[in-house]
């Protein structure tokens, strides 16, 4: 995982690709892509500051700094998308990266807190925000423990807990899904419905953005189309379900009887294999 590091003067640099056991505490950004996003190449060649999208990077770094975090992650520039192996790994790791973040900052570019006169405030724009209609933001809403929402001016609007009812009304996702309840408690059909009204730029991403929602890892094959991608996902989910269903529990009160039953039924066991199972 590659992170951005902010120094005490406000400067930002990319770290090297860090192994899992060397990743420091970090914040993570959730947003919708717009014009002039800062890409990996822009950060490495030093031209990123000249793009409009750098404002979001500065916002995330400054907010993380105020929260006592010097490292943060932004999808536009922390992934080298020209490296297919890195992109595959990133898309399959995204849910875990968001879940592992200390805080997730949602930057809503279409919600303003600067109202003139006696208008209705930012709430109507919040309900209509494009962020709630994008595919990848589904897991970015559910995975992190702490999700904080900010206006385009960088003003805090609330968090996933204080805005829980509003988010439920907008998305239709059950409130307990925001409260850390295991996603396996929700049926496959119910979780599939969460993505129905969301869109992605590339049609396959509407399926790939569900990897973390179903706790699966799959190859990313852009060009296969949404239907083929969906079929592969459904097959993988079914395969994993059948695998778990075959792990029948034994009676903890008398494991020796169960061991003897298995040995008789199977004609003996491989050396030490049953010890590992029990």
From TrEMBL:
- Top-level taxon in the UniProt lineage: Eukaryota
Q: Which Pfam families match?
A: HET (PF06985)
UniProt-listed InterPro entries:
HET
Residue ranges of every copy of the Heterokaryon incompatibility domain listed in the record: 26-115
Q: What is this protein called?
A: Heterokaryon incompatibility domain-containing protein
Q: What is the native source organism of this protein?
A: Neurospora tetraspora
């Amino acid at each position: 995982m590659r992170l951005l590091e902010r120094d005490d003067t406000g400067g930002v640099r990319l770290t090297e690709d860090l192994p899992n056991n060397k990743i420091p505490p970090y914040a993570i950004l959730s947003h919708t892509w717009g014009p002039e996003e800062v890409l990996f190449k822009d950060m490495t060649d030093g031209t990123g500051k000249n793009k409009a999208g750098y404002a979001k990077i500065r916002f995330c770094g400054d907010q993380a700094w105020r929260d006592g975090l010097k490292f943060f992650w932004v999808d536009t520039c922390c992934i080298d998308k020209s490296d297919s192996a890195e992109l595959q790994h990133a898309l399959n790791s995204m849910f875990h990266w968001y879940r592992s973040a200390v805080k997730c900052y949602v930057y809503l570019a279409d919600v303003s807190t600067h109202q003139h006169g006696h208008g209705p405030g930012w709430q109507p724009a919040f309900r209509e925000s494009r962020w709630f209609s994008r595919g990848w933001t589904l897991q970015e809403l559910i995975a992190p423990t702490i999700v904080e929402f900010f206006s385009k001016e960088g003003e805090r609007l609330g968090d996933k807990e204080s805005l829980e009812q509003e988010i439920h009304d907008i998305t239709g996702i059950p409130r307990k899904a925001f409260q850390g309840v295991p996603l396996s408690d929700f049926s496959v059909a119910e979780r599939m419905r969460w993505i129905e009204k969301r869109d992605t730029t590339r049609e396959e991403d509407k399926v790939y953005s569900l990897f973390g929602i179903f706790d699966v890892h799959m190859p990313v094959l852009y060009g296969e189309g949404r239907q083929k991608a969906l079929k592969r996902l459904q097959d993988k989910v079914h395969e994993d379900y059948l695998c778990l269903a075959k792990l029948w529990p034994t009676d903890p009160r008398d494991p020796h009887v169960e061991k003897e039953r298995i040995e008789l039924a199977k004609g003996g066991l491989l050396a030490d294999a049953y010890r590992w199972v029990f």
